[in-house]
Structures
1.
Amino acid sequence: MQAWQYVGPNQPITLNEVDEPTAASGEVVVAVRAAGICHSDVGFLDGTMTNLLGYAPITLGHEIAGLISEVGSSVTGYSVGDRVALRADLTGAGCGRHGGFQAKVATATEFLLRVPESVSWDQAAVATDAGGTAYRAVMTRGKVRTGDKVGIIGFGGLGSLGSQIARRAGAEIYVAETNLELHSAVRASGAAAVGTDIAEFADEELDVIIDFAGFGTTSAAAVETVRHGGRVVQVGLAASKGDINLQRLTVDEIELVGSLGGTNEDNVRVLDLMASGDLHSETRTIGFAEVADAVAELERGGLRARFVVMYE
Ligand SMILES: [Zn+2]
């Protein structure tokens, strides 16, 4: 079986021959139907996130959906042929162990999410990482409710999903995006307004602001902009520090909370939204042979759609 692997520092993603996995006790093997390529894959390869990988060489690909092809001993509740996706996790496939850029993947059942029949494989794969992260930030940590005015900082993969989720919850959306080329897409998404800096919406009394960018300056602007008693959710990790106005935080009783990834519950909600047609991620499907080219294109940047590798 062929696998696209991280093999060592300063090496490109490499096609190697590997053994097919088998299901250990408490595990299943999934025949992969779709595997998303994430910007983290670039980070694993270029050294920024390499320390998080479980071993090397290791098959990348942590946004995985497919059909169970083998069930290990002591596994209950899952059968061969079940449609599943794997919640992205540092200890899971594509980071802690071999991932989805190979046709079969072994996984512990704790990472499994059931995929409704009406959700396509490419959407199911994307739900596992960006989808769950966006859902958790908006709904679980952001507690967005009907009628809220919600600020979204950054309209990339996460931000565009986050704004769809917030709109579906009945919120009015205000987007700050520095890339002007994305503004027409923001308007088409039904946002109430779009600008380049969240501070432009200081008069709107935003109830919640979700910072998907995470440059310290965006976090600071969010704290300055949100209404008295409002909530700022920190998601993006672009900068490790920010210069926050603590007087404003105190005097206006602002909540500043972090949000990391998504739990199984968050991911199930995302799959439900996809099943009902309320959430869609823009994807570009490619063949297995094109993984290295797609990773290189992702590294060059400027892409909005997510690459998803499709298997037969
Ligand atoms: Zn990822």
2.
Amino acid sequence: MAALRKDGRVGAAWWEALDLQRIVAEVGTPLFVNSEAQLIRNVQRIRDAGRTAGLRHPMRLYPPLFPNSNPLTVHCFQELGVGSLVQLPNELELLQRFGFDDFIVSPGHISDEDVAFWSKTGYRVFLSSLDEVKAAVDLGAPAVCVRVDGLDSTKPGIKAAELPALVRLLERADVRLDSYEVYWGSGNSLEQMLEGAERTFGMFNQYFPMAASIDFAGGHGFSYDDGDDEQKHFGWLRYFTALTALAKRAEIPENVEFLFEPARDILADVGVLVLEVARDVIRGRETNLVVVNGSRMLMPSAQLRDRRHHTRFLDRSGQLVDDEGPGVRAAIRGCTVLRNDYVLPGEDYWVPDGVGAGCYLVISDVGAYCATQHMEFLNVPPAPEVLVDPSGVAHLVTARGPDLDKWRHLQTERKPLVNMMKGGGE
Ligand SMILES: Cc1ncc(COP(=O)(O)O)c(C=O)c1O
């Protein structure tokens, strides 16, 4: 095994084989770069694990669109036979425009109008409350799908205590339960996911023995800290091996389809963010600072979730800087005046000597919940996204937002809407 480097990684990541500077020369920085080959590998890892584990149930993957919302980046799902989970009508419209046609819908809580909208699409719509199920039943739906909140929390989903009432409601209306999705939160360990699966099978036998499919949702943990590119992925083989045994013990009929909605594990290590270092390291009494031309607004969820990402620097000619020699620990600061504009949480990123203005910072594992969560709160325009295909060709898939992107809907002058004074408008 190769020596553990200062950034904690073992061996080379996919992006280290790319001449990132050639892409930077075309589109500049900040820049998200995604690897289609890595995305395909991540799907295949799951499929292979299912096959090796001898999982007998038909398995279907439905990663949600919201963690990486670029239809060109996830376009290979179509050739791979991977579906998409959508939560909003605009996501469905977008994906259909790009030729996608295999969907499930997990919309959170929705109005009766939205229940009617989704019912008409004919896709499996996982409804999150008894009230929403009742709305679908009133519309004459012959079958429904439900989302169960395994955590019994304030998240959308029918609570465990409500399941007997759900069964009564469906029996009275003579409506079939087609499928149920159980969500157990995100970033779960193998043990947590298996505990969830066991309880999910329990629900099948107690409440839903007629279900044609069981949806295990997402939440399969991805270890951002791990230095090994394989180890950081969820333990799919052990998971499927144990799941197969659990399904057998629970006597789940083998024709019941198993659906999975992993996002982080499929998408996280597909993307890197490339930023340019704006100044030589600013050495402080307590904290050193590396100032880059990015902002926490490019990937706000890293700060929000206190998520550590691996970082590496490239020199001015785009070569990886050796991180085995001397250097300093530093915080990575964004380019706005806001006190808390730190690109990543923490103050201890390793900065080798020689890193300074004109060098580049590469942040790993940003393919899920990063570009897609970009906010223009600090007037920072959206970064472009590039997709490198398996033959090595880099494609622009999102153009850089122009400097005035934040104000793209700004009116050129005030437009009176309505007179709010009582008796006005006459
Ligand atoms: C219903 C549902 N499915 C799948 C996911 C994806 O989860 P993860 O990224 O943890 O795999 C989420 C995340 O919020 C979710 O709410």
